[in-house]
Amino acid sequence: MQRLDKDIKDKVFHRFYLLYGEEDYLKKIYKNSLKKAVLYGSDDINYSYFEGKDTDIHRIKETVETLPFFSDYRLAVIEDSGFFKSSNGLSDYLKDMPQTSVIIFIEKEIDKRNKLYKFVNKNGLVVEMGQMGIKDLRNFIALILKKNNKQMKETTAGYLLQQAGSSLYNLANEMDKLVSYTYGREEITIKDIDAVCCVQVTGRIFQMIDYAVTGNANEALKLYKSLLELRESPMSILYLVTRQFNLLLQAKAAGSITKSELAARMKVQPFAAGKYLNQAARFKDSQLKVILNECIETEYKFKRGLIDAQTGMEIILLKVARQKF
Questions:
Q1: pLDDT tens track, the chain, 325 positions
Q2: Which uninterrupted H or E stretch holds 190?
């Protein structure tokens, strides 16, 4: 990521960027930073955004072939296109793309054997944005504390990470709530975390899935509504549920290894690894994969305006409870 930071700072850009991985918050931060740097001094007239697997390659070509208006560059951002996991002719076109255009690809998953990946890796900059280590997460918390003139003991930060997990998106959301909740005083304590944060959310998410798995749809939906009453957004809950099932799939695929080994692989605490193993045992691999795809499809439909996130999450819980996978 140092190379990416240098491009943004020096305003000397690669023609192609690929930001991929599970850390959505980090991808969003760098997408916005790159956009601001590339379009410095101009407005969105030189900016185009494409999203989804139905993105038209011909529209991309038309966009990047258009000269920028009172700016050095035209920028195209292409997100969740699936181009890096499928066959397409985009890499052949990009060889002759005008020097005045910059493309940022943002993907969750890629295939390094893919022709487009190999082209961007050779001719641009590819940056993986996966889950961060404990040290980096603590530094992230420290930056937010400094920005808001707050303090937090090291043990308190560790407790927060234990409850919130390694997602920057979730961690930033929880820190925002803590900063607001502790308005008028400097130190954030464990009691504050227990009062407003994901110490309630993650536990309820786990219990909600437990109820759904055992067929108790009413209790699962009741817990879901309690999360909404805590002012958790349906999209945040969907993200956490998706993360939960992803971790369950990892636990299922791990085979016969120790809790400590699984915890290191999954980047969670050993006691949490044990919980994931127990819950994963209730599913088949195929079921977990279908549920994960359902979560991803629900997020996609929400972003396209085809369904609201709250209804989508309720449908997922009902399907799990009724064994519709």
A1: 889 999 999 999 999 999 999 888 899 999 999 999 999 877 789 999 999 988 999 999 999 999 999 889 999 999 999 999 988 889 988 988 999 999 999 999 899 999 999 999 999 999 999 877 778 889 999 999 999 999 999 889 988 887 777 778 888 989 999 999 999 999 999 999 888 876 557 777 888 988 898 889 999 999 898 888 877 788 888 988 998 898 888 888 887 777 778 877 777 666 677 778 888 888 888 889 999 999 999 988 888 888 888 898 999 999 888 876 6
A2: helix 190-196
71, 39 Cβ separation under 8 angstroms: yes
| C-alpha distance from residue 32 to each of 37, 43, 224, 323 (Å) | 9, 13, 32, 41
CA–CA distance, 282 with 1 (Å, rounded to integer) = 39
Residues 50 and 60: beta-carbon distance below 8 Å: yes
Q: Which residue has the tokens 């349906």?
A: 234
pTM: 0.61
> What residues contact residue 13 under an 8 Å CB cut-off, 6+ apart?
7, 34, 37, 38, 73, 102
Separation between Cα atoms, residue 115 and residue 95, nearest integer Å:
12
The structure tokens listed for 82 are 């699936």
The closest of 108, 81, 103, 91 to 23, measured between CA atoms, is 108
